[in-house]
Amino acid sequence: MTFTADDRVAVTDLISMHGHLCDSGELDRLDELLTPDVIYDISDVGQEPLRGVAACVAAGRALGEHNPVGHHVTNVVLSEITDDRVQVRSKGIAVNADGTTASVTYEDTVLRTSAGWRISHRKLRVHRAPLGGRV
Asked: Is the pLDDT reported for residue 57 higher than 90?
């Protein structure tokens, strides 16, 4: 199956929907975004990678009130596009209840599945220094 403009829109919407579901507390719908065997790599924040949708849901629930009140995604770039696989980089901005913010980069592998496009691997990279620390 050829990767089309409609696929590009679907993948971009998929990346954007993550924040909507998390911010509204609809964690039970993460299977609409993630493959069942997803690897969600949060090692950059000192945690072991999460494996599977249930682990991602449990981690979100465990954070409870420490979750950001807003996940905002921007600068979505698709690359290494094949018919059924896309590499995606995007920027994430987290707004916390106390008004503090954080900036991350998401590095995603997105696959075409029978249920539609889904994230099969996500690597979270936290920005801690200007210019990537190359100052």
From this structure: yes
